[in-house]
Amino acid sequence: MQDLTDKVVAITGATAGIGAASARALAAEGAKVVLGARREERLQELAEELGDRVAVVTMDVRDPEGAEELVATAVDRFGRLDALVANAGIGAYGGIMDLTDEQLRVMMDTNIAGTLWPIRAAVPRFRAAGGGDIVIVASVAGLRGAGDEAVYAATKFAQVGLAGGLDRELREQNIRVSTLCPGGVATEFAMGAGRTPDMPGLDDMLRAEDVAAAVVTVLRQPPTMRTLVWSMRSIQEAD
Questions:
Q1: Contact by Cβ (8 Å): 100, 88
Q2: Can 152 be counted among the known catalytic residues?
Q3: Domains in the chain, CATH or no CATH each
Q4: Which of 8, 78, 194, 230 is 20 to 30 A off residue 128, Cα-Cα?
Q5: pTM for the predicted model, two decimal places
Q6: Which of the two residues, 232 and 191, has the higher pLDDT score?
Q7: For residues 159 and 171, what is the distance between their CA atoms, to the nearest angstrom?
């Protein structure tokens, strides 16, 4: 397994849930992390927690300029970029006619464009460096549809399809593309948009730290192997 000490990893959606847990897990492995998110106060709090091996960028993944700034910050602060964790995403529960036009537009822009722009910003750096890792945090919803999650599932199918195409496009340039597809994760996901803190089943879901452990695992793979799609669920969660 590869040592992650001093590896430089950029993470989107870094201030909560899987993103924050991944930042902590990677920092514990000795990596240098560049945190990108919209909530500046939370970014600063996490940076203070993790210490001087952290850089932060207040950004919106829907904006390609923000994605470029994330990558540029990694290079300016730490000299290079070794991996990108495209984690930012949002969801909402509801049938096709239940959500507003704005809710659907923001979901599609965040989950699809917000995955694409950081990858486009990172790929030239990886090519110049002779390789790198892209980890896309998708969902089991991207492997099958689900009632009251049709549009969310469509955005996750898009991520899985993007990853599959990128693997074929970038593999020979030593750029690995891994897709993580967790089931339910007990985070802020969809809180106030169909999920509540006391909803049944929340305690049976994966923890953000479980998915962060998967992020660390795929980044520590030997350079001779790659993981294409990793689907995971809590041992307690029904299919």
A1: no
A2: yes
A3: 8-232 (3.40.50.720)
A4: 230
A5: 0.92
A6: 232
A7: 17
Sheet holding 54-58, edge to edge: 54-58, 32-37, 8-12, 83-86, 132-137, 175-182, 229-232
d(CA 140, CA 222): 25
pLDDT in tens, 115-128: 999 999 999 999 99
Give the 3-state secondary structure percentages of the chain, helix then strand then coil, rounded to 5: 45, 20, 35
* Residue of 78, 117, 126, 152 with catalytic role: 152
189 or 186, higher pLDDT:
186
- Look up residue 90 and give its amino acid: I
Tokens of 40: 């500046």
User: Which spans in the chain are helix H?
Assistant: 17-28, 40-50, 64-78, 101-108, 114-129, 150-170, 208-219
Burial status of residue 11 (CB atoms within 10 A of its CB: 0-12, 13-18, 19 or more): buried
Handedness of CA 118, 114, 135, 37 (dihedral sign): positive
Q: Can you tell me the distance from the alpha carbon of 20 to that of 26, in angstroms, rounded to the nearest whole number? A: 10
* 142 beta partners: none
Contact in structure between 175 and 119 (CB atoms under 8 Å): no
Q: Both tokens of residue 212?
A: 């962060």
User: Which one, of 101, 125, 140, lies nearest residue 175 by Cα?
Assistant: 125
